[in-house]
Known about the structure:
Strand content: 5-15%
Order of helices and strands: HHHHEEEEHHEHHHHH
Amino acid sequence: MTGLPQKRHLIFRFVWRTVNLVLALVVVSSVYAGVREYSVRRYLDGFSDAIVPNSMPEEEKLQAILDWMRAEPSRATSDNPDALAKRDPVITLTYRQLLNVCGTATNAFLNLVRSSDLRARRLLLLTPDNNTKHVVAEVLIGDRWIIVDPTYRVIMKDAAGHYLTRRDLQDPAIFAQAISVIPNYPREYTYDRFAHVRLARLPYVGFGLRRMLGAVAPGWEEAIDWSLLLERESFFYLVLSVASMLLFLLLRAVLAWYADSRLRIPRFHLREHALRAGVAFFSTPEIKQ
Length: 289
């Protein structure tokens, strides 16, 4: 009968050591991801300050960013732009080819706008079969999410010069007014179908997951700011690594409880030893006469 407990102990020790090893790796990756995200934010703050003074009104900030994107300063080019990191703002702000593609142009715009203390999010315009046909940005000005098209470097306006929301642009007459002043703007970039998060890209579960989330939490796409998570690679890996660290910390706590309460396996209690070491270090030593 002693063979079964010993086998259970061996399996537990293997799982325990594996979880601790993975946890250590995840902690290191979290620190690295945090440093990387901090450096990206510092870079973007400096970059945006050079383009847009913080004292400018919100509308002028938007226009200044679009003017910088429209201008053709000295920018890098790549012989293989498909190999560039399309979710790294340091890259998307640097290469001319990426600033001319809707997805990466919107990525660069969103990162600059956020670094200029404005709220912004991406908006995917969809075809009837839920493929992405174009990517634009929504920027919160006042209490309205107005549409900006970074690819064409324009803020969508009607004939009277009023800023337009996606709801406004669902009106064919207003949409026609807005694009009439934009050379070569495709008329198929309409706003009848859109999304902030394209779950259809997830194989097998995408459509069902969207319906389930819509039923359980209506408005989930706009309740959470998904754009930073999806548009900045460094932030995505930071969130992923921190979530993994919390998961493995919880798993380690469950395993520790199981070892103490069920298996009765003696183990090294790091916290207790650290407390004892701290008490011993800071306590006044007794001097014997």
